[in-house]
Amino acid sequence: MKKLLLVGTLILSVGAFAMKYDDTINNRNYHHNPYSNCSMMGGENHHKGHKKYSYLTDSQRDEIAKIKITISEKKLALKKLMLERNINWSQVEKLNEEIGDMSAKLKTDIMKYRYENSQNYSNNNEDLGINNN
Question: If you average pLDDT over every residue of the chain, what do you get?
Answer without folding.
Answer: 76
